[in-house]
Design brief:
Layout: E1 2-7, H1 9-16, E2 21-24, H2 28-40, E3 44-50, H3 51-56, H4 58-65, E4 72-76, H5 87-95
Parallel strand pairs: 1-2, 1-3, 3-4
Length: 99
Amino acid sequence: MEYFVIGDDDTVLGFSLVGVSGIAVSDEKSVKAAWDKALEEKNNAVIIITSEAASLIRETVDQYLFSSVFPLVVEIPSRHGGHTEDLRVLVNEAIGVSI
């Protein structure tokens, strides 16, 4: 079971420090390409995507968020999201597993 992160440079870099691969995105085209790449790899069981990136492909993300289809999608706040909770706590609560 692998994790894959899609988001801004800082988010992808932060997750890479703990061994999670991902792609930094900046526009709708790059988010779509990163999403497709994440789905291509069958070992990716969890896709972590920032809210900013998810908003660019909202319809696609929502199809996975509100279904039981794998991979599991976890939407996290972007670095500009203003969320005060610990990011690790948010991800752990969303997937029910401590990473």
